[in-house]
Amino acid sequence: MAALFRGSRNLLLRWTKHVDLAFVSSRSMASKTPIGFVGLGNMGSPMAKNLLRNGYPVIATDVFPESCKELQDMGAQVVDSPADVAEKADRILTMLPSSPNVIEVYTGPNGILKKVKKGTLLIDSSTIDPAVSREMAVAAEKMGAVFMDAPVSGGVGAASLAKLTFMVGGPEEEYNAAQELLTCMGANVVYCGGVGTGQAAKICNNMLLAIGMIGTAETMNLGIRLGLDPKLLAKVLNMSSGRCWSSDTYNPAPGVMEGVPSANNYQGGFGTTLMAKDLGLAQNTATNTKTPIPLGSLAHQIFRVMCARGYANKDFSSVFQFLREEEG
Fold first, then answer.
1. One of 202, 231, 235, 277 is an active-site residue; which one?
2. Sign of the C-alpha dihedral computed for residues 127, 132, 134 and 140 taken in this order
3. Inter-axis angle of helices 99-107 and 130-142, nearest 10
4. Sign of the CA dihedral running 98, 99, 103, 104
5. How far apart are CA 262 and CA 246, in angstroms?
6. What average pLDDT does range 279-297 have in this prediction?
7. Radius of gyration of the chain (CA)
8. Is 202 a catalytic site residue?
């Protein structure tokens, strides 16, 4: 009788293992269904490439067709509009410059919501007004789709290396589905709460980043004027209490670090225009919530002036160069 029991138990274990393996295999195959991607700029392009490298077929589009060529050469399918992407994919990521672009891509005449399928997961990694994210979520829900905001931190370098940080807002029950895709493009994926909270976290982060970069640029400039070697000064800062990301990873003084925009005449990286835009979002939300942000407001003013003085298309760390020129 005991032998019969053991035999039945072993048979049951083998059957259970077979079912589990079949389930995993089925799940793995399902996870490799096509992913839509809209917006192939400095950030979107390397993000979409990382999806391809992880075995996901990608269906992509961009307002500038030439932006699609490199991705197409890697095997992505390129279509004409966001609506065409929505027709072919039930998981879609968007990475766009501003709130108006997001509104157009989702709700415009050729927008995603014109042809979105019920049950589609929509993940927006743009940095926009949290109120716009909430509006898009409502519009998507009316079409039977789910919208989540998942803005990123880390810049172009982190996007290329799949080391971005994603700040995710949306229905908690959809977080695991979003996380599966986002971990292909980032090292950190953090759930922040309901729709719009990802944007809130990103806006706060970028306000601090802007303030920190201005402080680092001022410090490096002052030290150089006092006769300190910039590399030596950076070394001291980075082993002292003044250390920050702008000093040890993205130093704004030319000649201190390789592989950063300051080593390349401030080309590439995160544009001054985009930083000014993000600080504008921080200013608006601070006004709406009656939150004092004196340094954030001053940073916004500085980057807006830089845009007017010819720095709009340079990396935001060019604030160092801007301050040097102000000396004259």
1. 202
2. negative
3. 0
4. negative
5. 11
6. 97
7. 23
8. yes
CA distances from 23 to 8, 28, 29, 30, 241 (A): 22, 8, 10, 10, 52
Tell me the mean pLDDT in the region 320-326: 94
- Residue 155 CB neighbours (<10 A): 22
pLDDT at residue 165 tops 90: yes
Read off the DSSP letter of residue 169. E
- Closest of 207, 200, 202 to residue 296, by C-alpha: 207
CA distance 8 to 210: 66
Residues pairing with 190 in the sheet? 167
30-67 b/e with 16+ CB inside 10 Å = b? eeeebbbbbbbbbbbbbbbbbbbebebebbbbbeeeeb
Q: How many residues does the chain have?
A: 328
* Backbone dihedral angles phi then psi of residue 95, each to the nearest 5 degrees: -140, 100
Tell me how far CA of residue 31 lies from CA of 27, 167, 226, in angstroms. 6, 22, 58
Q: In 3-state terms, what secondary structure has residue 250? A: coil
Asked if 56 and 93 touch (Cβ cutoff 8 Å), the reply is no
- Residues 48-100: pLDDT tens digits? 999 999 999 999 999 999 999 999 999 999 999 999 999 999 999 999 999 99
How distant is the alpha carbon of residue 142 from its chain centre? Answer: 26
Q: Percent of the chain having pLDDT more than 70?
A: 90
The neighbouring-strand residues paired with 304 are none
Tokens of 176: 């695991």
